[in-house]
Amino acid sequence: MTDLEDLAATFTDHEHLAPSADGLIEAAQAGARRIRRRRRTGVGLAAVAAVALGALVPWTLSGSDGGDATNRPGPAAMPRPPAVDIDTVPGAGYLRIGSGFDGPRAYAGFLGGGRFPSGRVTVQSATTLDTALLRAGEPITIQGRPAFYLPGFVFADDASQGQESANSGPLQPGSVVPSTPAASHSRVAGAAPKARDVTEPVIAWAHDTDTWVLVFGSTDRTSLTDFAERIRIAPGPRTRTPYRLGALPAGFVPTAGTGTRESTLALAPAPDPTAARRTPWQPGANANPGTLQIRVESRGPDTGRRPTRPGPATLVAGHDTWYLTESDDNTRVPADGAVLLADIGACSYTLTTRDRTLIPYSALTRLIETTEYRDCADPNTWVDPTG
Amino acid sequence: MRFEDFAAARLPALLRYAVLLCGDRELARDLVQDALTKALVRWKRISALDRPDAYVRAMVTNEFLSLRRRKAVRTVALTHETSAGPDAPTVPDHAQRFGVGEDLWHRLAELPRQQRAVLVLRYYEDLDDDEIAATLNCRPGTVRGYASRALATLRLELTRTPAPTHGDTT
Predict the structure, then answer these.
(1) Range list of H helices, A186-297
(2) Which of A106-115, A237-246, B111-120 is the least confident region?
(3) What is the pLDDT of residues B117-150, one digit of tens each?
């Protein structure tokens, strides 16, 4: 048995768990501004809604297109990207200019002797591809193993993909559609390539029973074959970042990441199912921004980047930070989102959340507090962000 | 009183109160931040009250009691298990290294929220039952009921070391 003195002492003993008050007043002020703004716009929206309702009711009564979103199948569970390191053999003459992962696939881009990347590689789960169509390509041998050359692969355009997948019969959503001689000019089941889709030669082979490698980026068959021969795929982290995270929002996983000189990591509750059907034409540029994104760039004198910061800083774990819920001249903040800027050593960190209710200020500051930092200017020090 | 002055003076106490209510420092910060945000929107009216601090403390309490409606995702320490996704464990309790009162602290965490709030208000904030009732917007009898059930659950002896009198030298 214990007595009330023990109870009072228990409270006193645990009051040290109270968090720091740093930034709370600023966050409250930002939140209050948001509430006031919403109240102002709410009045206007109510009037607009009343007018819109009047217009909508007759349309509803006359019947819409009959589509029922609730009856559509949900997105299939997406596999995690292969944990591989994609590179070329030493001395091959290629410079890796970007690598990472996006949704269920790992990718890398390489610069050859010219000005533009001369080769790109993706490694992804067989479940995200129509392997039967890949195997319909011309059989060749790459690195001593069976491979397939497809002169007219069609990489679907992002914007039209949803409609395309609905028309493509046996294709799984997001699969890469080969336009091989066998398949003639039709993609499949009579679905013609869309105007914005991109067609180019691809060499593909099964890396193991579960994953496939796609090599593309050159329209010249000889160059593409030469490049494919020099690809090396080894086990490794999905991406490397100049930091190792110490905490994450519960249930969140990295869904996209890229990094060479700059590092970007996207996190969300689940991998983005649309990522499998995007083409990594510019590695990282089209990565899913995720619900939470961490971008790091060097702000050292060698880069010439000295970002303008919005007003006085708030110290978080000894680092200067700025919390924004509205865009300014230098920082774009997503609607309903927030951005936490942090200067950590010679590195500029930008933490962007698309939902500041889901990821509040306290979650962002905890990321800053619990993360282990490396030198963002030296990729040799970079590590697996969740390793 | 300006909101900034009030917040600067009362924030540490509010954060201590919040962490004792919910037992989690990140959640405590969220509770106080949400309460402060709402308080700032109504600050003209709140600042005119006799006890703005009591009002804001009641707002923090209400945030705690309505936690189920909260949408925010908790942040968890990153381990190999958490990176696996939804099966992530919860934040480790940093108080585990403190042995004294640890058992009682864990038992407090299992109490219903109203009961825990009553205990914190009564034995940490030193409020009487009328003040607690005003904070929780209930009757004093209800407060006594919550306290009685909470203490029974914790199996506490209803004894308290007598306060020293003026004649005591210790």
Answers:
(1) 221-229
(2) A106-115
(3) 999 999 999 999 999 999 998 899 999 999 999 9
E strands along A207-242, which residues? 211-216, 231-235
Domains recognised in chain B with CATH numbers: 1-80 (1.10.1740), 94-165 (1.10.10.10)
Residues 87-126 on B with a CB inside 8 Å of A are: 88, 90-91, 94-95, 98, 100-101, 104-105, 108, 119-120, 123-124
Inter-chain touch A14–B75, beta carbons under 8 Å: no
Give the three-class secondary structure for B105.
helix
Give the whole-angstrom CA distance, residue A2 versus residue B104.
Answer: 9
Q: Is the pLDDT of residue A258 over 70?
A: yes
Q: Percentage helix, strand, coil, to 5, in chain B?
A: 65, 5, 35
A360 to chain B: which residues are within 8 Å by CB? 30, 33, 72
Strand partners, A123: A106, A213
pTM above 0.80, yes or no: no
Mutate to test the interface with B, among A17, A336, A358, A370 (most CBs of B within 10 A): A17
Question: Does ipTM surpass 0.85 in this model?
Answer: no
C-beta separation of B124 from B104 below 8 A:
no
Length of chain A: 387
Question: Does residue A367 belong to the interface with chain B, where contact is any CB pair within 8 Å?
Answer: yes
**pLDDT tens profile A105-139:** 888 888 876 555 578 899 988 887 788 888 889 99
Do the Cβ atoms of B154 and A12 come within 8 Å?
Answer: no
Measure the CA angle with vertex B7, ends A334 and B111; round to 5°. Answer: 85
Q: Check if B22 contacts A (Cβ < 8 Å).
A: no
